[in-house]
Amino acid sequence: MTDTQIIEETVAFVQETLQRAEGGHDWFHIERVYRNALMIAKDEKVDLLVVSLAALLHDIADAKFHGGDESIGPKMAQDFLTTLEIENTVIQHVVNIILNISYKTSLGPQSSFKSKELEVVQDADRLDAIGAMGIARAFNYGGYKNRELYNPDIPPNLKMTKEEYKNSKAPTLNHFYEKLLLLKDKMNTDTGRILAEKRHRFMLDYLDQLYRECEGNA
Length: 218
Ligand code: ADP
Ligand code: NI
What we know:
This protein is mainly alpha-helical and 218 residues long.
């Protein structure tokens, strides 16, 4: 099987699996992350097959939508990739990226797994969590969970443990302070950092306008 055929098969599998996904974690999120990853990879020395497969499979079964179970996604990816003719080292690398990509993983015990390919796909995923699309995804997820949009009486919690983060029922606006505005300083690559700065400024302008509207000042 050529790399192109492997990628085509993977795209078809992901599109089929995510047919009824929440709007912020659907096929089009995957497509954006895949494109971001290829763009970031141009300036890095990485295995493009690993980057592509990890970007395409990183949210195949997000724990948020599977009762918090973090093992289903990596297992589904591994089972799928095993049906294709792919070297085992590539499969293991992709599975390790899926195990380590999530923001909440960085709140828990530190894993020893590191790779340039993980850094590229993580930056690509983080870019889609910020900026105009990041704002849309956050409010869609909040709506999906029936969270409040904004409640000035509930302040953001900047010292959440991984468990608190997973179980948080806080208003969606708090998520900006608890995660989205922190991402620009956590980018791994130069390309990621430049794009994140721009998207970060857009979110700050957005919040500025939102508070002015709340105060009847705009
Ligand atoms: P990861 O999947 O990398 O651990 P998250 O679980 O924080 O990251 O979620 C990915 C995306 O889902 C976020 O970027 C955001 O759009 C949405 N999301 C997750 N948790 C929340 C929340 N508490 N409020 C609003 N949006 C959220
Ligand atoms: Ni994602």
